[in-house]
Write a structure and sequence with these properties.
The chain crosses the membrane at residues 28-59. This is Toxin CptA. This protein is an alpha+beta fold. It has a domain at 25-68. It has four helices and six strands. It has helices at residues 6-9, 24-42, 47-64, 138-150, and strands at 15-18, 77-83, 88-93, 98-110, 113-120, 127-132.
């Protein structure tokens, strides 16, 4: 029987990805917020309610775009390393630190977007990883989609207690 092909044998090699800065995601977030503001204006709400809602929407937009601003840079995930044989996933943060993923909460891959919510060591709240198509080259994008589809990430063990 012939040896397995290179592409098959490399499926379990460690995956090291470095994300480029996305140009699409901030624009998409801004577009969604503009549409939401337009919808609020069309509702005919009282002035005070409209003003409070628009301020909340503005704060939501600032929070959504914070990883692209200077005050949220430490939260920006700039890459990931996955070692499938050892079942280890690490996130590479903007400041160069590597955080080991302890639990994967959600993963989703849709055309043009991959998102993951994970719990990492030394963090209490989940870290969201959102990757758009323009952040990776074609082969790494396909590998990441397969990785998310396969889902060989760390999961919390079921304790059997209700």
């Amino acid at each position: 029987m012939p040896e397995s092909s290179t592409s098959y044998s490399s499926a379990f090699n460690p995956l090291e990805l470095s994300f480029q800065r996305s140009g699409r995601l901030p624009k998409a977030i801004l577009l969604v917020h503009i549409i939401a503001a337009g919808a609020l204006f069309s509702l005919g709400l009282p002035f005070f309610t409209l003003a409070v809602t628009l301020v909340g929407l503005l704060l939501s937009q600032i929070f959504s775009l914070s990883p692209w601003r200077s005050f949220g840079r430490d939260e920006l995930v700039t890459g990931l390393s996955w070692y499938p044989d050892e079942k280890v996933l690490e996130l590479v943060m903007a400041d160069g630190t590597r955080l080991k993923v302890e639990e994967t909460l959600t993963m989703a891959a849709v055309p043009g977007l991959i998102s993951m919510s994970v719990i990492t060591e030394k963090r209490v709240r989940p870290v969201w990883v959102v990757v758009t198509r323009d952040q990776l080259d074609g082969s790494n994008w396909r590998r990441l989609k397969v990785m998310v589809g396969w889902g060989g990430f760390p999961q919390r063990e079921a304790s059997g207690q209700g």
